[in-house]
Amino acid sequence: MTAIVLAVGNPEALFGSSTDDPVRFVEPTDTPVSVFDLSVLRGDGIFEATTVWKGFPVSLENHLRRLADSARLMDMPQPSIAAFTTAVEMVIDRYDDPEPGPMLRILISRGMDPTTGVGENSDRMPRVWIFLDGRGKLHSLDPLTLTSLTRGYASDITAKAPWLLNGAKTLSYAVNQSIHRECDRRHVDDAIMVTTDGYTLECPNSSIVARYDDLFVTPDPRIGILNGTSQRELFSYARREGMRTDYRKLPLAELREADMLYMTHGGWIIPISRLDGRDYTVDAAEVDAINEAVHSGRTHDDALSIAPTGDYAG
């Protein structure tokens, strides 16, 4: 059985016009990355991650679209979505473990560091790694406890300082990891980040959705957060069930007044049972039904067209 599949990308096929295979496979225990690579030296790169449920990569198109958007924000070459789709399919075809929901990750580095003696004569092309892991820590649907933490800047920072790369899914996760350690110290599962003027952002690795009766609300990504992929699957489910959805600038005080809260990431919708000491209703049967709809692909097509509309009220 092959429970972990690791592939190294062919940048000429994934970013250029080459028709060669987009990936080659290596042993998971190999080390196919140089210490002179910018992803290692600077955390300079982008990535995406999702669950592959029984061979179905959840939200793959939206993940690859977001990957391309991150590349644009990072001034990196534009990836070929068709080539990356083929690469992912090749990786999935190699997996044959009984675990039904392995995690897929696509990692892209800017390439070798040209300021090093090894990197100065490199081809200056991105480096790509794709892996499917059925042995690592996978998702749980156990309800989560959260705290709110300040992000340290106001809600208008993205417009004022686009070089901060808010909204890009970068490999620079030191702050996100620090937030998780703070959560451990506070004995909670995760955190919701908040601006200094009181608006909800996102969690370190996920999006947040609030439910008020039949209305599902998430922060507008134009505030400077990731455009959630699993969140759009949840919105698709809600609309299919005759409920309403909305993107908006969401004050933390309003978020706390929700009837239910959900964390969405990696192809999963996970209930939240407590935020800042306040308890929330958890409907486990409904959560199961939502995830079944997402993993079966029933929410897929509508999720592709879900996005904020109108002018951003920044």
How would you portray this structure in words?
This protein is of the alpha+beta class. It has helices at about 10-15, 40, 60-75, 80-95, 155-160, 175-185, 230-240, 250-255, 285-295, 300-305; strands at about 5-10, 25, 45-55, 55, 105-110, 125-135, 145-150, 190-195, 205-210, 215-220, 245-250, 260-265, 270-275, 280. The mean pLDDT is about 95.
pLDDT under 50 segments (min length 5)?
none
Shape designation: globular
Helix/strand order: EHEHEEHHEEEHHEEEHEHEEEHH
Radius of gyration: 20 Å
The top-level CATH class of the largest domain is Alpha Beta
What value does the average pLDDT take? 97
* Helix share, percent: 25-40%
Identify the CATH homologous superfamily of the largest domain: D-amino Acid Aminotransferase, subunit A, domain 2
Oligomer: single chain
Query: How many E strands?
Result: 14
Structural category is alpha+beta
User: What is the terminal-to-terminal distance?
Assistant: 51 Å
In DSSP terms, counting alpha (H) and pi (I) runs of 4 or more, how many helices?
10
What number of domains? 2
